[in-house]
Amino acid sequence: MRKHTIVALVQDRPGVLTRVAGLVRRRGYNIESLAVGHSEQPEISRLTIVVESEDVEQVTKQLYRLIEVIKVSDVTFDPTVEREMAVVKVHAPPSTRHEIISMCGTFEAKIVDVGATTMIIEMTGTPSKVENFIEIVRPYGVKEMMRTGRIAMVRGARGHNAGEYVEPANSNGATTPSMN
Questions:
Q1: Per-residue pLDDT averaged across 25-34, rounded?
Q2: Which CATH code of 3.30.250.10, 3.40.1110.10, 3.90.45.10, 3.30.70.260 fits the domain covering 2-78?
Q3: d(CA 81, CA 83)
Q4: Domain 81-151 classified CATH 3.30.530.20?
Q5: Beta strand 110-114 with 69-74: parallel, antiparallel or unpaired?
Q6: Residue 53 binned pLDDT confidence (cut-offs 50, 70, 90)
Q7: Could you tell me the residue ranges of all domains in the chain?
Q8: What is the pTM of this model?
């Protein structure tokens, strides 16, 4: 099965994330990674979902049915910039710190905390680079780890923005101005 990266622009409202995740779950797809945050426009969030499946066309079509979803794209085959961040606490007695510091330099990772026998390292990069770093430090003893999940943005002029977005009509039928 192939991992698909889906990027969606959604209205920043309570419950939207739950509805999106529920829709993907009902279709029987496992969400490998989900990251959401504010976009370049107020009240619009950018959502990146990674699912493992042969075909996710049905999911993208169903996402458009949700009122709060503005735009959806499967960017799996598009040229994208993908990033992920991991924060890893490793066992680091003084005898191994020099080796760990050297590896951090090779991977352009940052040491963000040093304890008596531990170090906390922040690693940002492509998902494969983050995975490689974790495998390299694993023999030292990973005590704790947290990964953000993948975020993706299409390269070049073909972006994934909301353009001239107009709020849906409110209860009295009026629309609010577009957000720019």
A1: 88
A2: 3.30.70.260
A3: 7
A4: no
A5: unpaired
A6: confident
A7: 2-78, 81-151
A8: 0.76
Return the closest-CA partner of residue 180 out of 157, 160, 163, 155. Answer: 163
- What's the rounded Cα separation, in Å, for the pair 102 and 111? 11
Residue 101: what residue type? I
The residue type found at 119 is M
Read off the amino acid at residue 179.
M
- pLDDT category of residue 168 using cuts at 50, 70 and 90: low
What does the DSSP 8-state code read for residue 42? T
Read off the tokens for 137: 């430090």
For residue 180, the model assigns a pLDDT of 35
Per-residue pLDDT band at 175 (split at 50, 70, 90): very low
